[in-house]
Amino acid sequence: MKENVIKNKSFAFALRIVKMFQYLQTEKKEFVLSKQLLRSGTAIGALVREAEQAESKSDFIHKMAIAQKETNETDYWIELLFQSAYLHESQYKSIIADVTELKKLLASIIITSKENRNDKK
């Protein structure tokens, strides 16, 4: 069976987000932004999993597009946490690299899926 890269990477990313949330709550005593980060950062993988059971190609594309939006939102919260000094530069650079990779993967999946859908029409 072929490895599902986006499924694995989005799950690993969600684990990182959970750990970052725990760090922000316990070490930095930050409770509002960290909860927003937790919600959007873990939603990406949940949506990817949901897309596995899509009812149609259009449904699959739609779920992946929502995952892409959640990735953009997560990017926003991470940037805000960094700019407000809750994250050190090394923490920021490490996690933002993962966000960028997820954005590229999701964009590629959506584009390819739309092309494949149009080829069948």
Automatic annotation (TrEMBL):
Name of one Pfam family that matches: 23S_rRNA_IVP
Gene3D superfamilies in the record: 23S rRNA-intervening sequence (1.20.1440.60)
Designated name of the protein: Four helix bundle protein
